[in-house]
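Standup notes, structure subgroup. Blocker cleared on the uracil input:
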Amino acid sequence: MTERHDAVDVIRVKRDGGTLSDDQIDWVVDAYTRGVVADEQMSSLAMAILQRGMSRAEIARWTAAMIATGERLDFSGLGRPTADKHSTGGVGDKITLPLAPLVAVYGVAVPQLSGRGLGHTGGTLDKLESIPGWRAALSNEEMHAQLREVGPVICAAGSGLAPADKKLYALRDVTGTVEAIPLIASSIMSKKIAEGTGVLVLDVKVGSGAFMKDIDQARELAETMVNLGADAGVRTSALLTDMSTPLGYAIGNGNEVKESLDVLAGGGPADVVELTVALAKEMLAGAGITDADPAEALRDGRAMDMWRRMIAAQGGDVDAEMPEAPHVEEVRADRDGVLTRVDALGFGVAAWRLGAGRARKEDPVQVSAGVMLHKTLGETVKAGDVIATLHTETESRMPRGLAALDEACGGDGAIAIGDGPVERRIVLDRVESAI
Ligand code: URA
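Run returned:
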């Protein structure tokens, strides 16, 4: 087949700071997915995009071209509104677990297509797979049936959704081009738009444990994604939320399921509850429900009942106990004071090295590996108090897990004890679409 463009011409346009035409974008995304544009050509284009940026129109076209490489799901026949949440990834971020059933309490279907952890950020599917019997892979028919009959579904995205993104994301990962805002935004939004949700709430993380280290970058990413959603007719809003400190006390897989169950039982850490309720209100408002009190549905057991139905529908044993790791080390306070730093990146890397995360996509993760904080930012400690325990199924991983805490923050360490007080805001800002 004769190709209508040449990859080198397309690369040159962006390299020199020009604007790609709609047809160039359609072609290059499709040709890359077909294997006609080579990896080295696409990586060069991705680098040019990282350095030169893209206009709003270019990003919208790029996103549409990625969607066009695969299938689109359609939930219009469900007879209920649909709402989904996407987090840009963080440490201890288990919010999807209580959030999906909580929102479904109000009659909203929640098609939550989730991912696995890579690097120091955890993945929702890895966490849920700690529950014996639970299945992440559902067919489109099974997903539809669960949305209709139960309400919430958390499952893996099928391989048919935006296949261009799968290929491009893997390439960006190894070519230093993950951080390009147009590419992050189009990657996330191509999957979310193809998934067919009516309402989308983005949780854009800011801080050491997030992709976006400062609020201005995070706001730019949020605005780009919200505009893409609006252009595609999806009611989209974003919360910018703190990821300089882990969310909650549990970082790992099985321990994060346990902490989520505490939240669903009406307790749990205050920051996890605050963010779960804030995101639930945002999703419900998008679906036209403005008089709900999601905190009440956590306290009165309705969200827990919905969780049990959701997990059971996917084969999970809702009463299973999470296993304990055989190797545990304690980290203690060396002085009296207030915790003025509990660094998300340092603790995320520690949990990852202990076995909670994976180095390569195909690696298994450990159910009981991770970190349990006993104290967090702003709490008072006495010298000798246990601040954190590190857990692993593989003893030889422990020294590197402990070292991650010392190496954090340029060698200053993941933990600092000072005189306080420390103020922490969870929701830093909100960005809304014009439609
Ligand atoms: N998550 C995605 O799905 N894509 C990105 O590019 C970054 C985070």
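Discussed briefly. The radius of gyration is 22 Å.
Next: hand off to the docking folks.
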